[in-house]
Amino acid sequence: MNNKKPVTLSIDEKTYEEYRKHCEENGFILSKKVEMFMREELNKKRGK
Predict the structure, then answer these.
(1) Which tens digits make up the pLDDT trace of 1-48?
(2) Are 9 and 19 in contact (CB under 8 A)?
(3) How far apart are CA 48 and CA 24, in angstroms?
(4) What was the pLDDT predicted at 47?
(5) Whole-Å CA distances, 6 to 3, 37, 44
């Protein structure tokens, strides 16, 4: 399953820029980090 859904988010500008820079400095893809966060939250909800 490799379907991707484009989304639009409203995020505090300072927070976004700091996190974008963090991702860039550490070789992360920002969208992948957000996706991982979402999966972790869902796993917590499911008790995994």
Answers:
(1) 579 999 999 999 999 999 999 999 999 999 999 999 999 999 998 887
(2) no
(3) 30
(4) 86
(5) 10, 16, 24
Phi and psi dihedrals of 2, rounded to 5? Answer: -120, 25
Contacts of 33 (CB under 8 A, 6+ apart): 19, 23
How far does CA 22 lie from the centroid of its chain?
12
With a threshold of 0.90, does the pTM exceed it? Answer: no
Report DSSP letters for 1-48, one per residue.
------------HHHHHHHHHHHHHHT--HHHHHHHHHHHHHHHHHT-
HSE-up (13 A, CA, CB side) for residue 29: 4
